[in-house]
Amino acid sequence: MTSIVAYAVVHTEPPSIFLGEDIEVLHRVLALEVVARTAPTTLGHGAAEVRAALLEERWGDAVVGWIRATGTGVDVYDGKSVYTADDLPADLIGAQLQFTRLFDGGSTTPLRRVING
What we know:
This protein is of the alpha+beta class. It has helices at residues 23-35, 40-43, 47-55, 59-70, 93-97, 111-116, and strands spanning 3-10, 16-20, 74-82.
């Protein structure tokens, strides 16, 4: 069964990806795993603002303060699907492909030949 999750990409080098079951959990993950692990000297004058937001459990504000202080971008996505093998059975994928837009009309190569070689 498909699950809905939230995830974030923190644009460090290399980028870091964080996943939560919803946006509220994701904000807490970012607060703990990214923001709170940052050296205060990296945050400069923004450290006090970020600390206060964390202590008051204003997770989103803490992340925004961290972004401002570090200049590091964070992209957050909510409501994304996680698919399982049950959602896309391997034995049915060929049949499902023939009903997709790419194979709708105008196909010059029969799908059966593409799948079976």
